[in-house]
Amino acid sequence: MKVFKISYRDKAGKVSTERVEAETQSQAVDLLASRGMLTLSVAEEQTAHAAGKSASKPKRVKNEEVVIFVRQFATMIDAGLPMLQCLQTLQEQQDQGALRDVLTVLVEDVNRGRSLSEALANFPKTFDKLFISMVRAGEAGGFLAEILEKLAVYLESSAALRRKVKSAMMYPLVVSIIALLVTALLMVKVVPQFVGIFDGVGLDLPLPTKMLIATSNFLKGYGGLVVLGAMVAAIFAFRAYNNTPAGRMNIDKLKFKLPVFGVLVQKVAIARFTSTLATLVSSGVPIISSLGIVSEASGNEVINKILKEARANTEKGEPIAVALRDTPYIPRMVAKMIEVGEATGRLDQMLSRIASYYTEQVNVAVAGLTSMIEPLLILFLGVVVGGIMLAMFMPIFKMTSNM
Fold it and tell me: Which of 1, 213, 293, 323 could form a disulfide with 309 if both were Cys (CB 3.0 to 4.6 A apart)?
């Protein structure tokens, strides 16, 4: 037996809450309906047994494994096999790991009469709100196999987009770390060797050389630990600030204003939310529910806020485009295309076109960034290393000219 917390309105119009034991959610609602109660909301409460099982849930499954599982599941459902048999077959063919553990629990839940979407909701780290909402829509409409195929395509395209963005960010990060390590090595190991030579000769050192030697002495002592500690503290302070609502909002606003990278951030955000919204709308998820899901999963708090305003407008009967066309973070072309999609009843198709266009723009931007950043980073590395070596050799050049 499960326990459901139900909010209802009685015959007198009074709103109350009651806990009801039943096998399924529909049975609990029917039980109250037989007493003349109008159900307003239903939420399953977690029992002690369920809580214990939840604590031992496996870790998040890799995205690649989820895509393969979804494609196989869709093929089997489309072939007409019963859902429980599909899950059991997929569970049996999996090697030991997180996905097998997930499928084991899914088989148990579906076998007890729970819907697939309810069973998937037990694993929010593996199946997000978008995934569950689409599966629920597929169950209700009787086209689960088509929904699963759309999910697989969406997951693959999302993963490809993330990989492109990571590759664009990773290259400058790696080169910067290498430059930092090379600089530290020169300051701690190479510069002191020259200091011994200069002390023995007794030269009047140039100002750049004196500054370099002072920096080297600082880093060789406790200064290196101070700098390292300051860097670690700055990273932790940034993460703590980013974990606050105001901090995330301000940082995401700053991302749009970054030179070079700001345009990429905007294109990624637009491609992500339009692709997600198109997938939900085309799967039969109500537009208000779709906007609610996307406004929590766009990956950018600025876009999330805009989409929440769009959802509020939609609940009032206004078009989605109203909240999009008055913000500098959404291009006017995007707002206009969405407005046309709403007017013609082809919103999902228009969103898909926008997503395809901006995904291609992300690919072009990533390629352009890589070709542009590479010479800049090499120049930066050359200036840093060359500047250190020049400061060290200036006294030697002076001594040679005097001789």
Answer: 323
